[in-house]
Every structure is written in structure tokens, then in C-alpha cells.
Amino acid sequence: WELTKGYPLTKFLLVISNILDSNKTADSFLNLKSADLTWVKDSPFSVEHDDLYWSKQGALEESEHVFLRGNNLEERWRRLSSKETFLIGELGFGAGINFLNTWKKFIEVSPAQSKLHYLSFENRPFIEKDLLRVHSQYPTFLNESKELISKLPLNAKGLHRISYAKGRVTLSLLYGDLSETLDALRNPQIKYDAWFLDGFSPAKNPEMWSSEIASCLAEASHSETTFSTYTVAGFVKKNFEDAKFSLLKLKGFGKKRSMLAGKNTSKEKKAIKKKKIIGIVGAGIAGCSLAKI
Questions:
Q1: pLDDT-derived band at 32, boundaries 50, 70, 90
Q2: What pLDDT, on a 0 to 100 scale, did the predictor assign at position 22?
Q3: Which tens digits make up the pLDDT trace of 167-225?
Q4: 250 vs 20, 228, 235, CA distance in Å?
Q5: Which of 49, 116, 131, 266 has the greatest count of CB atoms below 10 A from its CB?
Q6: List of E strands, the chain
Q7: What is the number of alpha carbons within 13 Å of residue 203 lying toward its C-beta?
Q8: Are 196 and 142 in contact (CB under 8 A)?
Q9: pLDDT > 70: what percent of the chain?
Q10: Cα–Cα distance for residue pair 195/193, rounded to 1 Å
């Protein structure tokens, strides 16, 4: 997308890019429907799922309590070795508040040459004006927000990988329904260090909390992998217990009495992989396939 700026767009790219500024149903089979929102005191509310995107007590505060503290991330990041990569997987990118908060805190506390890889699934991307409305409420992320939005991909199904913070932070956005995109986790060589489970309420969107998803996350985890979420719904606990996660109830955020955290019980040790740079000459089908791998 960056490469097309300033040049005439093909009809194909025009069809895809037109949806960026609209909440209408997409005109291309590659497009996703954008998030259909109403607003409750400057907080986005999903019309489709009849649910707020985050607690009324604040998105940033909830992100800090539920996901960063729930996974004990700052302490774990300080213990990273030089050039080590930390992998986070998230269900529900939304307005990107968890990503922005994670990015900023990771840069602040981790060793200078360590890297963050952040994979997030999203089926209803925000349009730019809605992202700007949300992000304007969090001036602490001003620089990160500008860089994030300037590089966000076209609204097209599939995997989009973007580099931020001079290469220290990589965002992999998987656009599409989880039933179509979950296979991206079935790679035995990639194990995630932490999971952010931030879908809509289990009562409103039970598909995001299924036993299949819990099992898939477990397969993509090692013995030190953790997860956290704001909900303690009974069937969510059962699904993650069945997937061999040990569970822990923690103090909830805002008006919620409890939240859920867990650790994978796998015996598979974390493989320390240090970032290497590989150059691929040629951007044809073979070159693009190698870059994706």
C-alpha cells in the first residue's frame, strides 16, 4: 500500500481501498466488512455483537491490568536475552489499544536488541476515522498511533505483516473469520509466549471462546506460555482446562470481580530464537511465498 501512494491505482486496488473510508459491505471478495459502530461517550460499541469493545473504566487501564499484568509481561521482558524475540498472539485487534500499549511498554523495559512479534486476528477492521477518534483520547500513544495508522494495510483478507519502531516491533494482522485464519497457528516451529484473549463477551460471541480455539492456542504454546482474559465464564474455563492450561482467578478490572489467567502445562521448552535478517531478491510468487514463511 505504501508503494502505491502517489501513483494511479489499478481498478483492483481502487475497489479494495474504497472500503477504508466506509462502513458499507465490501465490493470485493477480498474485502471484509468494517466494524459497524455506535458510540457511548466516545467508546466504540459493536452493533453486530451488541457489546462495548472495552470496559467503561477505560481501554488503556483495562489493557494494563488484564493483559500486561495478567501475563506478568514487564518482568518477563526485562529477563529477555539480547536479540531474543518475544511472541504475543491476540484474538481481537479492535482499535489496537492493546498493541499500542504493548509496543510502548516493550520498548521501555526490554533489552535494546530484543524484538517483539505481535500476531492479532481481526474480522471487522476499524476504518481510519474511527481509529483516530479512539486514539485521540490517548495522547501517550501519539507517536505510536501515527506510525501504526500510516502503515495499516488495505482492508483485504489474509496476513499483513508490518514493521514498526525501526524494526524492533513486528505486527502480523490476520484479517478474516477465525474459522478461515486459525490455521495460521498450526506451525510446529512457532510457539507463542503469551496470549491476549480479548474477543467480545462469551455470551455475545461464543465462537471466539470455543474448545477448538483453546486447543489450537495450546498447540501453539510452550511450557512457559501464559494467557489472560477479562472473563471467567464457565465454558471458557472448561475449554482451557481441557486444552491443558492451568488456570488462576485474579482480581478483575473495574466492576468485574474476577479475571482469568492461565499457563500451558506442556513439557515442550521454549526454543530461544534470535532474530536474523534474510534478503529475498525477486518479488514474484516464489519470493512472496518465501517472505510469508
A1: confident
A2: 47
A3: 999 999 999 998 889 888 888 889 999 999 998 899 999 999 999 999 999 999 999 99
A4: 39, 10, 17
A5: 116
A6: 37-40, 43-46, 51-52, 85-91, 115-122, 158-164, 169-175, 192-197, 221-229, 245-251, 258-264
A7: 7
A8: no
A9: 88
A10: 7
**12 phi and psi, to 5 degrees?**
-60, -45
Q: How far apart are CA 73 and CA 59, in angstroms?
A: 18
| Grid cell in block for residue 193 | 509466549
**Which residue reads 509481561 in cell numbers?**
73
Phi, then psi, of 48 in degrees rounded to 5: -60, -45
Nearest to 44 by CA among 62, 56, 31: 56
Of the pLDDT bands very low, low, confident and very high (cuts 50, 70, 90), residue 287 is confident
- The set of cell numbers assigned to 272 is 530461544
Distances (CA, A) of 199 to 7, 23, 78, 196: 38, 20, 28, 9
In whole angstroms, give the CA distance from residue 104 to residue 77. 12
* Cβ-contact 128, 20 below 8 angstroms: yes
Q: Is the pLDDT of residue 105 over 90?
A: yes
